[in-house]
Amino acid sequence: MGTYSAMRETGPLSSQCPTGPGSVTTVTSLDGMRPPTPPPDSDPTVRVAVFDLGSTSFHLLVVDAWRDGTLAPVARRRSLLHLGADVARSGSIAPDRGAAAVRTLRRLHRAAEGAGADVVVAMATAALREAANGPALLDRFATVLGAPVVLLSGEEEAHLCLVGQRAGVWVGRQPVLGLDLGGGSLEAGICDATSVFGVTSVALGTGRLRGELGTGDVLGEEGRRRVAAVTRERAAAVAQLVADHPAPVTRVIASGGTVRALARLALTLHRPPPPSELVNRVPVNQVELPAAQVAELADRLVSADLDTRLALPGMQARRAAHVPVGAVVLDTVLSTLGLDRVVVSEWGLREGAVLSALALRSGKAGERSGASWRPPMPA
How far apart are alpha carbons 231 and 92 in whole angstroms? Predict the structure, then answer.
């Protein structure tokens, strides 16, 4: 039985988002992401806008932030672009896809300006790290935003994910493994409540694997074997990170859209939400997924076509194309590392970027972010 917190992820209200590589869909949500208790009575320290230029989607998150680390949502936007699939297939981002990304960023920038953000953090991840034309696109993005976009290394991305995860769910004195499964990469790190001990990033994103392996509408058993084989090979760096840590690591926290989708599916398959409840508002923060249940979900998803997946309770349209690959990746990582359960965090990279940029945990307010901002790395 999973445990629940009052934290919720916000997501789009649309249920008809195209999910193929040729689609670009913009969705909007403005309601509660956190806090589990009302914000402090005092005015927020600062309003922060985070642009997350990812491998599957471009995100804008605008929050009011307090010095104690409380974040209250102001606006959230998401556009599906599937840049990572382009990079996996050809090594670069197609001109029409790049033009769509620029148009999307202009819309997100207007939304951030309308929200009156005091601090802006713009960061790009795996697809733009690896695309041959990534530097040229980053220059175009900087022109749109009027400030440079920070191209995160895989290790920097993993560190920010850990910062967000441990702010979003309980982390005690014992070391935990944090995993963030994205469209272009899998980030991993080991931390406790006060320290980050080590991080790594591996090429195991769901969009990347779909592009590399050419998986079809139905993944199938052969597709599952191929995804699992690649996962075992590339997850060796994660296994080494765990093996090198001096204390046993038995607790796992995972974040990312695919992980949240799997958690919602697990919950709604066994306890459907009331008819009036929007599926994307089902809280999954600190929900615990046994490894056996992840394997069961993978069994079910690899044989299902897109229409069947969309008909599953809790399945969001924008996740349906990627979730079979994601389920196999997560199942394989857990079995490879000998881990028996995973705890879901709704917070990850974007929330970690807010906390890192403003150093809220140490009571410091930040300046407007630009080329000088980079996330701190563990010693």
Answer: 23
Nearest residue to 329 (alpha-carbon basis) of 169, 250, 219: 219
Torsional class of 220: left (φ above 0), alpha (ψ -120 to 50), beta (otherwise): left
**8 A C-beta contact, residue 185 and residue 203:** yes
Nearest to 26 by CA among 115, 137, 104: 104
Q: Are 125 and 157 in contact (CB under 8 A)?
A: yes
Radius of gyration of the chain (CA): 19
Domain 25-153 identical in fold to domain 156-344: yes
Pairwise CA distance, residues 236 & 133, whole Å: 29
CATH architecture assigned to 156-344: 2-Layer Sandwich (3.30)
List, for residues 194-231, the tens digit of each pLDDT value: 999 999 999 999 999 999 999 989 999 999 999 999 99
- Closest residue by Cα to residue 302 from 282, 329, 281: 329
- The residues, ordered by sequence, that sit 6+ positions from 122 with a Cβ below 8 Å of its Cβ are 50, 51, 53, 141, 145, 147, 148, 149, 150, 369
Tell the residue number behind the tokens 């056996």, with chain if given: 292
Do residues 71 and 33 lie in contact, with contact meaning Cβ atoms separated by under 8 Å? Answer: yes
The pLDDT score that the predictor gives to residue 31 is: 33
Residue range 285-294: mean pLDDT, rounded: 97
Tell me which fold the domain 25-153 belongs to. Answer: Nucleotidyltransferase; domain 5 (3.30.420)
Domain ranges, ordered by start, for the chain: 25-153, 156-344
Return the bridge partners of 178, or none. 189, 253
* Per-residue pLDDT at 81: 95
Q: Please, what is the Cα angle at 13 between 8 and 14, to 5 degrees?
A: 145
| 8 A C-beta contact, residue 266 and residue 326 | no
H/E stretch holding 145 reads helix 134-145
- Map tokens 């959230």 to a residue: 76
Sheet containing 341-344, strands listed edge to edge, beginning at the edge strand earlier in sequence? 196-202, 186-191, 176-181, 251-255, 341-344, 288-290
